[in-house]
Design a protein that fits this description.
There is one protein chain. By secondary structure, the chain is mainly α. It has 5 helices and 2 strands, in the order ββααααα. It has helices spanning 34-43, 67-72, 86-99, 104-111, 117-130; strands at residues 4-7, 13-16. It has a two-stranded antiparallel sheet. Strand 1 and strand 2 (13-16) form a beta hairpin. Helix 3 (86-99) packs antiparallel against helix 4 (104-111), helix 3 packs across helix 5 (117-130) and helix 4 crosses helix 5 (117-130). The N and C termini lie far apart (47 Å).
């Protein structure tokens, strides 16, 4: 269960719990990614159910400040620029889910939110994306 990584002023790192019970959830991804995700978990992530997916060279969990650099190592060949932030992936996934027809409740579950406010942000975006297609 992970709600985020916190770094104290003295440099001590710890994982904080999710903000609400809605933050404890299973996360789905396309089946086409299963082999890649399995490979990462088996060869690069910390072991165990609670092991971090992104770890540094000595096996320590990656901090929020280090994560973009760690991700950047594999993005150059894919043509991803430095303007992409890790959190942008979350927004992209939720926008795509909304575009594919996910409703408010499904978006809330995907995002781990207990209120509908965040889910509603994605629905107008999708409406604007499709607006030019209407005649």
């Amino acid at each position: 269960m992970w709600g985020g990584r916190v770094e104290l002023q003295d440099g001590w790192l710890f994982d904080k719990a999710p903000k609400s019970a809605a933050g404890v959830r299973s996360v789905s991804f396309p089946a086409a990614l299963l082999d890649s995700v399995t490979h990462r978990l088996e060869h690069f992530a910390a072991p165990g159910r609670d092991g971090h997916v992104f770890v540094g060279p000595q096996g320590a969990a990656t901090t929020a400040e280090q994560l973009p650099g760690r991700l950047g190592q594999g993005t150059e060949g894919a043509g991803v620029t430095a303007e992409l932030h890790f959190h942008d992936l979350r927004h992209t996934g939720n926008t795509l889910a909304s575009t594919a027809g996910a409703g408010k409740r499904e978006l809330m579950t995907r995002m781990g939110h207990s209120s509908s406010r965040a889910a509603l942000i994605y629905q107008p975006v999708v409406a604007r994306l499709w607006q030019p297609l209407k005649r």
